[in-house]
Amino acid sequence: MIYGLEVLDAKGVQTLGMEDFTIQRLATMTIPASRSGGLGVRGDYILINVDGYDPATCFVTITPKAYSPYPQGAGQAYWGCVPTYKDLGGTQIGIITYGNYYEVDYKGDWIFKWKSEVVESVVEVVRVI
Known about the structure:
About 0% of the residues lie in helices and about 50% in strands.
């Protein structure tokens, strides 16, 4: 059984496969779980400077360290989610662990809030050579 990427031509001959790539891990970092929230709008992030990072040749994966032990859906306790990342240019990426949203109060005014409900996750930055 073959896992990964495999490209075949019209005659079924492999023209590209995983043996054509070398993958190099540039960085790994654990992001702690967080359950918090507050008023206002956030724009901060966890800054990671990764020597050798280039979005043209690298990718970022964010994987939870644990998965929900029960089915998710309506009526279930919320398990949380993984953070996301933003390319900041150069060799920097930002890890975002919250979401901004708003609610409307009884007067029709917007109340801006943020919420962080992330599970412990591992961030890996990988370069394809």
